[in-house]
Amino acid sequence: MIEVKNIRKSFQGKIVLNDISATFEKGRTNMIIGASGTGKSVLLKTIVGLFSPDSGSVLYDGREFHSSTHQMQKQIRREIGMLFQGSALFDSMTVAENVRFPLNIHSDLSESEKDDKVNFYLKRVGLENAANKMPSEISGGMQKRVGIARAIVMNSQYLFCDEPNSGLDPQTAWMIDQLIHEITLEYNLTTVIVSHDMNSVMEIGEYIMFMFEGNKVWEGNKDTILDAEPKALKDFLFSNKLVRTFKGMQ
Ligand SMILES: Nc1ncnc2c1ncn2[C@@H]1O[C@H](COP(=O)(O)OP(=O)(O)OP(=O)(O)O)[C@@H](O)[C@H]1O
C-alpha cells in the first residue's frame, strides 16, 4: 500500500500539487486521471522520489520515503518497477537483455539465476519466443510487454505505469490493460497508473483519483465514475463520445 498525505508542490511560485492525499492499495489497479497539465506526472514523480514535495509525505507500506535514510530510499527504489510512456527500451539490447538490465544493476544473483528470472518473466508476458529480437523488430504492444517484464523482474512490490496505452491500437491497449491488471492480482502489487484513456479507466479502474488544476477533485472507481458530480470531471468524461453514448447522451 502507498499512502500519499497532504502533498504540496510548487514551481516558481505556481502551485502544481495542492494538498493531495490518496491511498493506493495492494492488489488493486489504482489510476490517476485528469486533463493535460493538471499535475499527474508531477504527482507520480513525487511519489517515486524524483521530486521532493514542499510538504507532505509518501509512505510505502508504512515507510516514509522523503524523510528516510539514503539506505532506506535505496531499498524502496529497488521495490519499485516503472513502465514508462513509449516503453523506453534500450535499442541496442535484445529483448532478454532489456529485461535482464535491472538484475545486472541491482542484484547479486548468479548468471544462471538471472537467466531463470528473465525466462520466467518473458514467458509470463508471452514473449518467450522473442528473447533474442531487438526492440525495433517487435510491435509496440510487444515492446510494452518487455517494459512490463523489465518493471517486475526485481520482484517489484510497486508498479508505476505512465500512460501505458499511448500509441497502441484499441485491441492491443485492452490486452496491455488486462496484463497489468492480471499481474497486479497475481503478484499482489500496488499498481498506480497515470492515464487519459477512458477505455482503461472503465476496464481496470478499481480506484480512480481525478485531478484538476493541481487538486484532487474526486475519488471512486469505474462503477461510480459515470455518476460523479464534480463539473470538471463531467466535462472530462463527457468529452468522450463513447462515454456519452454509454450514458445515453448525444
Ligand atoms: N520541472 C518542472 N518545472 C517547472 N514546472 C513544471 C515542471 N514539471 C511540470 N511542471 C508544471 O507542472 C504542471 C503540471 O504538469 P504535469 O506534467 O504534472 O501535468 P500532467 O497532468 O501530467 O499533464 P500530461 O497529461 O500532459 O502529461 C504544468 O503546469 C507543468 O508546466
TrEMBL record:
Gene Ontology molecular functions: ATP binding
Signal peptide: none
Keyword list, A-Z: ATP-binding, Nucleotide-binding, Transport
TM regions (residue ranges): none
All residue ranges annotated as the ABC transporter domain in the record: 2-238
Taxonomy, superkingdom: Bacteria
PROSITE patterns attached to this UniProt entry: ABC_TRANSPORTER_1, ABC_TRANSPORTER_2
Record-linked InterPro entries: AAA+_ATPase, ABC_transporter-like_ATP-bd, ABC_transporter-like_CS, P-loop_NTPase
Name of the molecule in the record: ATP-binding cassette domain-containing protein
Lineage, uppermost ranks: Bacteria, Pseudomonadati, Bacteroidota, Cytophagia, Cytophagales
